[in-house]
């Protein structure tokens, strides 16, 4: 898969002396969904703002579709749609006119049939003549996506697109994003909802303190860093674990003991562990396993790599 965006040694230091990005390099593949994760102030929004031409980098080079973002910024920007974190709309304008205006800003000819397809995909067609001030917060975010797609971009940046959106609407928007990917659109997503990245992303990048700690295929990341937890439910509570079971964590009520292990290791130690319960005369009621989530992986990586 070819690179749609190439970033080399990108840095940004603001006039205040704050270093927002330092030596960031990566390739973003055509047609993939890349999720960028990181705490507040990690540099995610600065990274997106530079690639979209809104912030000038202090150093490094970025090409978008083969166009340098500084020397050939018009051609590069024409390939990009941006859904910003903040909702900034003309509240007394209608939905359809807002999207038409955005398309016109890129010098595109009028094409109401194309805009209708976008609004229908975003469940906004029935609201096309409504003023923006009449819409809910979730609907306004959909309008932002419609604006970003109005000129037919090949790349879509989503900066916290579902912030403040309820769970049902969030999942509906995930379906919209998947549909865009199926049409070949490259999507870069920043989010605080780790389940969002886990649900949609092909690859995950982790940024902290302006540094790109890693970029990895999501499945590889989960395979390499994921863990499973074995929870043993006891028939009767105990006050302490015997030495043979000291590697487990006992719950406060004494009824559950948890064991963390690598599911891909040659030996997990589970068989020996369960035998130890029997040898110690501790009666087991039930056993369950749980796979670690991307949130667990993220927290561990930030701790270990920062």
From TrEMBL:
Domain (ABC transporter) ranges: 5-234
Tagged with keyword Transport: yes
MF (Gene Ontology): ATP binding
Domain of life: Bacteria
Keywords: ATP-binding, Nucleotide-binding, Transport
InterPro entries linked to this entry: AAA+_ATPase, ABC_transporter-like_ATP-bd, ABC_transporter-like_CS, ABC_transporter_ATP-binding, P-loop_NTPase
Record carries keyword Plastid: no
A Pfam family: ABC_tran
Protein name, UniProt field: ABC transporter ATP-binding protein
Organism: Albidovulum marisflavi
């Amino acid at each position: 898969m070819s690179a749609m965006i190439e970033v080399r040694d990108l840095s940004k230091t603001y006039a205040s002396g704050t270093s927002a990005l330092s030596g960031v390099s990566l390739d973003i593949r055509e047609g993939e969904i890349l999720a960028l994760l990181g705490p507040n102030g990690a540099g995610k929004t600065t990274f997106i703002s530079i690639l979209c031409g809104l912030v000038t980098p202090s150093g490094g080079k970025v090409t978008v579709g083969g166009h340098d973002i500084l020397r050939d910024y018009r051609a590069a920007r024409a390939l990009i749609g941006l859904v910003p974190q903040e909702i900034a709309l003309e509240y007394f304008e209608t939905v359809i006119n807002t999207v038409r205006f955005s398309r016109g800003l890129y010098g595109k000819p009028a094409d109401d049939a194309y805009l209708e397809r976008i609004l229908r995909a975003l469940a906004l067609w029935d609201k096309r003549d409504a003023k923006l001030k009449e819409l809910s917060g979730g609907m306004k975010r959909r309008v932002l996506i419609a604006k970003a797609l109005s000129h037919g971009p090949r790349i879509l940046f989503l900066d916290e697109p579902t912030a403040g959106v309820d769970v049902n609407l969030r999942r509906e928007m995930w379906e919209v994003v998947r549909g865009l990917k199926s049409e070949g659109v490259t999507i870069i997503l920043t989010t605080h909802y780790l389940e969002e990245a886990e649900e949609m992303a092909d690859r995950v990048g982790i940024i902290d303190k302006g540094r790109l700690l890693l970029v990895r295929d999501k499945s590889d990341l989960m395979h390499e860093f994921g863990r499973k937890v074995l929870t043993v439910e006891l028939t009767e509570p105990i006050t302490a674990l015997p030495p043979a079971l000291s590697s487990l964590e006992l719950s406060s009520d004494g009824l559950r003991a948890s064991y963390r292990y690598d599911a891909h290791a040659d030996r997990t130690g589970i068989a020996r562990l369960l035998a130890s319960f029997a040898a110690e005369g501790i009666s087991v009621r039930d056993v369950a396993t749980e796979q670690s989530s991307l949130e667990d992986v993220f927290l561990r990586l930030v701790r270990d790599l920062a």
